[in-house]
Every structure is written in structure tokens, then in C-alpha cells.
Amino acid sequence: MSKKTSFVALAAVALLVAVGAGAWWLGMQQGMGHTSPAPQPVAATTASDDPSLWTIPQGEAATRRHIRESLKAGDVDPVTGRRILNYHDPMVPGKNFEAPAKSPFMDMMLVPRYAGSDAADASSVTVSPRIQQNLGLRTAPVVEGSLVSEVTAVGNVAWNERERVELSSRAMGFVEKLHVKATLDRVAAGAPLAELYVPDWVAAQEEYLALARLSGDGTDALQDAARQRMRQAGMTPAHIQRVVASGAVQARFTLTAPIAGIVSELMVREGATAMPGMTLMRLQGTRTVWAEGAVPESQAALLQPGARVRTTSPGAPGQTFEGQVQALLPEVDAVTRTIRARVELANPQGRLVPGMLVSMRLDRPKAATTLLVPSDAVIHTGRRSVVMVAEDGGRFRPVEVTAGLEVGGQTEISAGLQMGQRVVLSGQFLIDSEASLRGLEARLNQEPVPPSTQQRYTTDAVIDALSGDTVTLTHPPIPALKWPQMQMDFKLPPRSQQPRDLEAGDRLQIEFEMQDGDVPRITSLQRVAPEPRQ
């Protein structure tokens, strides 16, 4: 091989190595560019920024600044120009703190929450229009009106006990003839029922007639006395009048029906002996009947005696019976949780009889005008009823309401809302969950609590014992309270405001206030370095 050929081969190899090295270097640079992008500078926080859009490092930086500047919940941050609501750990939602500090849950600082932010407020939750559209949020206005409702019930027909008549014997006698032979026979008013022979009445009539034939002074008084004895024997005024008018003994007495109806009970037969006070038969009027319907106890309060009732029955197809609620019986069925409503129904043709099944529609008295919302908007938690009120700017605020009657998809609201407000119909459970996580539930419908104006006292103390949220301290004399040096219990502040790892023997400087009926409450405390040994 010539020298020229060897040189060309070596040059080609060198060229290939150079190209490969360049390709490898370029690939590494591109890979590093994809995996490790250059960090973007963090935008400076200004008063025009929305703190709710801060990153966690920005929030932690703000908390550290609050500690340096001695800011806490309720103060106005001079950098953002907004009032500080509280501090929270983003990793543990639902726990709020009043002072800036390190998170008790994570190795990080707490993050402040401000009032008036676009996405954070003391009593509302903000949902962006895009999220609203994705959730399908729908709202409806709070309107004014009254619910027109009726209560339905199923019941059975029973006789109206107020139209029951009992016929009894007025004296000892004998039943010579019965005009009714069996129970449930229908009778008309004034129809003859039975014929009785009463011996005692015959003697009284003969005495009267004998005196009636006498004339002269004093006979009128004797006749009146004889007439009185016939009444005492048990004769009816009509029977006595027939004796007086005819002038003859009326040996047999015809018992007639005082009302139209049926013979519900028949206690005697022909030839039987009737003793004084003995019940002969009972008549039941059919002009009206009772229908007792089972009404759920939750709806019974809607009914009042006198409410109009329309009733139908399979036993009388095509016919409607009118009536009214006579009474709500004071008894609740423990199994079905219902109350019986006694309804009096007109029964002119006698079509309704006991045991017949009826369907009743009981009109509710017209309700007063009140606020109405769709029933889907009300969240019943078991302890309270809540609706989500939609406000301007995509804000939603939980409001506790007093819910009333629910009819036809509408619910009465007696307190909590105003005319014209809009409530959320769908997606309100997601908003309510977010509100609960942010601690809005604790502030639901509560008025702002003014800061405490109670006098506070400062003293040094030494921990003797710790027990839950109570600490036993020994403190020097407190001249402002005229207290000598003594050992006593104090209520500790929230754990987030306590130094870490408190134990017996620690020296503290505390600020406290008095409480009615309880031990003094420490409002702030800090650990003091131990005194140097002599």
C-alpha cells in the first residue's frame, strides 16, 4: 500500500470520528434542554397581584415577612393592601390559624389567605366561568308566592256515631209484635218498630179517666196529678195525649223510629218481656258517614278541622262525595307514623256503607305568601338546611335557610334569603364541599365578632404541669390584680400559638385575660431563657 493511500484512509477515519463526536455533543445538549429547562424568574409580588394565584413558595415568603413585621389575622398587609383572613397549610385543607408560623403538619411555612381576592374571600367561593360550564352549574331566582297543595289519603267508611239512637223500655212490659225482624233492616222516620203491652200504664190511664169523669171544685188538680203519674210511669207525651183525646184506655204502645236509617242492633223478639231500662234496639242514621284516612304525621299539621274533602270509592264508580274534616284524632300509629283524619261525608243515597274503601283529597287551607326556591337547591345536612347563593363575579356563598313545606318541586323559605337572589340548582354539592374545606361552614351566617376589649395582664411564670389545654403555673405577685405569688391553672392558647415542646420547668412570659366562670386564658406566651447559675 502506498503512502498516499494510507493518508487518505487515516483522514477518512478522523473525519468520521469528528462527525460522531459532534453528533453526540449535539444530542446531549438537546436532551439536557428537554429535561432541564432554564428556570423562569418568579414575578415580583405587587399590590395588584391576586394572592390567591400565588405559588406555595410565594405564600411562604409572605408568611415569613408577616412574622418579621408582626402581622397576624385581621391586620392589613401593606404589600398587598388586603386584610389577612387566616393562615393555612395547602396540604391540610380545612385547618386555619390566626398567626403566621411553621405548619404543624408539614416541614413548610403556613400560607396566608386574604379577603377581597378574586378567588378567596371570607364567606364565598369563586368558580371560574370555564369550571362553571364544565360542572353544568344552573341557577334559579328566589321568587315570591304561595304553595297550593292538597293532602291525599286512603281510608275506610264507618258509621257516624253521632247519628246513633238507642231505644229502651220505659217500664215493664211485653213485646206483642215486631215490625222489624232483622238487623240492618232499613226504616223510615216515624215508621212503627214494635208494639208493647205495659200493665202499669193501663192502671195509670184508668185512674186518670176515672178522675176525668168527675166534676166539681178540685177535680182539675186531681186530673193534673193523675196525668203526672202517667208521665212518671214512663208514658210518652204523645201517648198521654192520645189517652186524653180519646177518653179511652190505650192498652198497647207502638214504638216508632225517631230517625231514618237502619236497625243496627235488635235485642228482643215477639213475646219477650221487657224490663225497665232494657235496650230494645239501636238505630243508625245513614244521612252522613265517617271516613277515617291515615295521613302522614308530617302532613297532618297542614290540615285543619273544616277543610273541604272530595272522596271517591270503587264501590260507587263515577260518583264524588263531598265533606269536611271533622277532627284529627289525637293518636299516632307508631308503626306507620300516621294520624287518622276523621272526615264527615254526605251520603244522601246511602251508597257509602261501613268497610268501603275510599280515596280522599283533603284541601289544605290557602297558605300565606312566602319566598319559594326549587327544592333541588336546598342541601339538607341533618343539622341545617343550606343553599348556595350566586353572586357577581362568579362568587358563591353558602347561606343557612329555614325551609318549610315542599310541594311540586318548590320549597318554602321562611328565613335566610331575599327576593331576587339566585340560588344554585346543580353542582351545589361540589361548591359546598369546597366551602367546608375552606372553613366557611364555621362562619355560616355569623356576624363578625368584635375584637376582645377585655383587659389583659402580663407576668412571668414557671410551668409546673401540663394537662391537655390547661397548664399549671407558678407566678410572682401581680399588683394589678392584687394577687400574691401562687400556683394556679391557666387555659393555653391554640397549639399553633404555643412554643414547641413545652414541658415542666420551662420559664415563660405570658399575657392573659380573665374569664367568667373559668380559669384565666393565656392569649400569648413565649419561652424565656433560664437564669444563669451563680
Point out poorly predicted stretches. Answer: 1-9, 23-48, 118-122, 441-451
Quaternary structure annotation: single chain
How much helix is in the residues? 10-25%
Could you give a short account of the major beta sheet? 9 strands, antiparallel
Question: What is the number of helical segments per DSSP (H or I, 4+ residues)?
Answer: 8
Strand content: 35-45%
Which value, in Å, is the CA radius of gyration?
48 Å
Shape: elongated
CA-CA gap between termini: 99 Å
Structural class, by secondary structure, is alpha+beta
The average pLDDT value, as a whole number, equals: 77
- Give the number of DSSP strands: 31
Overview of the molecule:
Helices cover 20% and strands 37% of the residues. It has 534 residues and is an alpha+beta fold. The strands form six sheets. Strands 4, 5, 6, 21, 22, 23, 24, 25 and 26 form a nine-stranded antiparallel sheet that branches. It has a six-stranded antiparallel β-barrel with strand order 7-16-19-18-17-20. A five-stranded antiparallel sheet has the order 29-28-27-30-31, with no helix packed on it. Strand 23 and strand 24 form a beta hairpin. The longest helix is centred in the N-terminal third of the chain and has 33 residues, at 3-35. It is elongated and about 135 Å long.
In a few lines, what is going on in this structure?
With 534 residues, the chain is an alpha+beta fold. The chain has helices spanning 3-35, 56-68, 129-135, 199-212, 219-232, 237-246, 297-300, 428-437; strands at residues 84-89, 92-97, 111-114, 125-126, 138-141, 143-145, 150-159, 164-168, 173-178, 186-187, 192-197, 252-256, 261-266, 273-274, 279-285, 288-296, 308-312, 321-332, 338-346, 357-363, 370-374, 379-380, 385-390, 395-407, 410-415, 422-426, 456-467, 470-475, 486-491, 507-515, 518-528.
